[in-house]
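#onboarding

Welcome to the new folks! Below is a worked example of what a typical request in this channel looks like: someone posts a single protein sequence, and someone else replies with the predicted structure as tokens. Don't worry about understanding the tokens yet, we'll cover that in week two.

Example request:
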Amino acid sequence: MNGSVNTNSDHENRIAKATLSGSELDEARNARFGAGSNVSMSTLGEPLSIREVATMLGCSPWTVRQKYLPQGLPHLRTSAGGRLVFFRLQVIRWILKRQEIHTKGGVKK
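Example response:
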């Protein structure tokens, strides 16, 4: 076997680097919704990195930053210069909303 084969542990390591720790997630959630908020993971979905969102959208992380953030893609910054955090269900709702706005019966408005 060659060295380019990804193992489960390689995949798990990449996910661990891309996702937030429990305290980082709590900090980001409190910054967005206020301390003591009852917003749950079932409302937001799992946290995603910009690379994971780019994969969902079929584009590059650069395109996410330059095109989709200005168009209203929901995200959080962990701090002023911190990384971007996205939540799966928010991203999905944003995609579905954009599809409703830009199409009617499969035809672009």
